[in-house]
Automatic annotation (TrEMBL):
Listed cofactors: Zn(2+)
Name of the encoding gene: manA
Source superkingdom: Bacteria
Keywords: Isomerase, Metal-binding, Zinc
Catalytic activity: D-mannose 6-phosphate = D-fructose 6-phosphate
Manner of cofactor binding, per the entry note: Binds 1 zinc ion per subunit.
Active site: R287
Record CDD domains: cupin_PMI_type_I_N (cd07011)
Swiss-Prot/TrEMBL GO biological process terms: carbohydrate metabolic process; GDP-mannose biosynthetic process
Protein name, as recorded: mannose-6-phosphate isomerase
UniProt cross-references to SUPFAM superfamilies, sorted A to Z: RmlC-like cupins (SSF51182)
InterPro entries cross-referenced by the UniProt entry: Man6P_Isoase-1 (IPR001250), Mannose-6-P_Isomerase (IPR016305), Pmannose_isomerase-type1_CS (IPR018050), PMI_typeI_cat (IPR046457), RmlC-like_jellyroll (IPR014710), RmlC_Cupin_sf (IPR011051)
Family: Belongs to the mannose-6-phosphate isomerase type 1 family.
GO MF: mannose-6-phosphate isomerase activity; zinc ion binding
Length: 407
């Protein structure tokens, strides 16, 4: 392995069939028929709940087991000593229905929460478990289509304006004025359900007809709040308190090729579109609404950063090698985009373990083009591997690459 041998393989990820996913985008990307089952996420990595499979002449093997067979050689000494695993999880997402309001814990808090739930005897696959592992989960997304998401609390002046201009929220304005973000959010998240219903019903009665008549813009929180109600079969009996978050958070619109970084503690939710997502190797999610999954309000409040967020859209830094790098503060991962015109070649020697997926075009990869990187195909490349990618078709090739930002 490593510099003494080849460690480059075709990789097959795992589709996750979450209810919010679309039905066609991921199957079409992978060249598979749609099945009538939602295909929300395509996972590429070594997370124990859904490790990818690598193709080898001597027989297929899951990526987690491959890495464990020679971790220092496959990951590189620096990655292994720092993380003791492949430190990232690479995904393609197709968001048809909005995801839950969520926050991810810091590394230290994830370690404590994971240990606490283990000691309490909560099974790892229990639906009421908060911590699936002991890792933090910073993440970066790069839009593959026009993409909408919620990201962090509105700046103070904007949130004041919302509370004053939405008549149903008039009594919340003094709470925010006197006690700030934490008190406001704690107040609405801890309201008894009958009070939530009573408070939101007038708002729902006002905005749903506008939504059904196509009179709301997607940059208006009323659009997403109405959609949440219309698409929630339980809304007749129980209005979702996640609707408050739609009004309290920034609504971001991101164009294809632009990125957004979500750090620990920043509340967020994806609303609509397709993206590439790269995160620390974790599945820890603390939820606050817009989901049938487990919601733990005290735990959510404990880990949320109650501060104004001024949304930042990240554009990549383009290098001389046709690689556009999306820089973030995360030590666990770095995502980049490689675009090649017909006949062009990308050459590289890996400084850490890499996973690449092709979104468009026909390409070959490896030392001598032995691996496919045509649309929907993925490869795993171990540490210290010299390889090339050739654009072999008549269409521009677009490839996204996950790696570790080690010097």
């Amino acid at each position: 392995m490593g510099s003494t041998g080849s460690c480059m393989y075709q990789l097959n990820g795992k589709i996750q069939h979450y209810a919010w996913g679309g039905f066609e985008y991921i199957p079409a990307l992978l060249g598979q028929p749609a099945t009538g089952e939602p295909a929300a996420e395509y996972w590429m990595g070594a997370h124990r709940s859904a490790p990818s499979v690598i193709e080898r002449p001597q027989g297929n093997m899951d990526l987690k087991s491959l890495i464990e067979s020679a971790p220092e050689n496959i990951l590189g000494k620096a990655t292994w000593e720092k993380f003791a695993e492949l430190p990232y999880l690479f995904k393609i997402l197709d968001v048809k229905e909005m995801l839950s309001i969520q926050v991810h814990p810091t590394k230290s808090e994830a370690e404590k929460g994971f240990a606490r739930e283990n000691e309490a005897g909560i099974p790892l696959d229990a639906p009421y478990r908060n911590y699936k592992d002991a890792n933090h989960k910073p993440e970066i997304m790069v839009a593959l289509s026009p993409f909408y998401l919620l990201h962090g609390f509105l700046p103070e002046a904007k949130l004041k304006s919302v509370l004053q201009s939405v008549p149903e929220f008039a009594d919340l304005s003094p709470v925010f004025e006197k006690e700030g973000y934490y008190a406001l959010y704690k107040h609405v998240m801890e309201l008894p359900q009958d009070s939530v219903n009573k408070k939101l019903q007038a708002l729902v009665d006002r905005i749903v007809p506008l939504y059904k008549d196509n009179k709301l813009d997607k940059k208006d929180p009323a659009f997403w709040a109405a959609r949440a109600v219309v698409n929630d079969p339980q809304s007749k009996d129980r209005l979702d308190r996640g609707i408050f978050s739609i009004y309290f958070f920034n609504i971001m619109f991101v164009q294809p090729g632009q990125a957004v970084f979500q750090d620990a503690g920043i509340p967020h939710a994806y609303l609509e579109g397709q993206n590439v997502e790269l995160m620390a190797n974790s599945d820890n999610v603390l939820r606050g609404g817009l989901t049938p999954k487990h919601i733990d309000v005290p735990e959510l409040l404990k880990h949320t950063r109650f501060e104004p967020v001024h949304p930042e859209v990240l554009n990549p830094v383009v290098t001389a090698t046709k690689e556009a790098i999306y820089e973030s503060p995360a030590p666990d991962f770095v995502v980049s985009r490689i675009e090649l015109q017909p006949g062009e070649t990308y050459k590289h020697t890996s400084t850490a373990a890499e996973i690449l997926i092709s979104i468009q075009g026909q390409a070959s990869a490896g030392k001598a083009g032995e691996l496919s990187l045509s649309k929907g195909h993925s490869v795993f490349i171990g540490f210290d591997q010299s390889y090339k990618i050739d654009c072999t078709g008549a269409e521009t090739v677009i490839i996204y690459k996950a790696s570790v930002p080690l010097v």
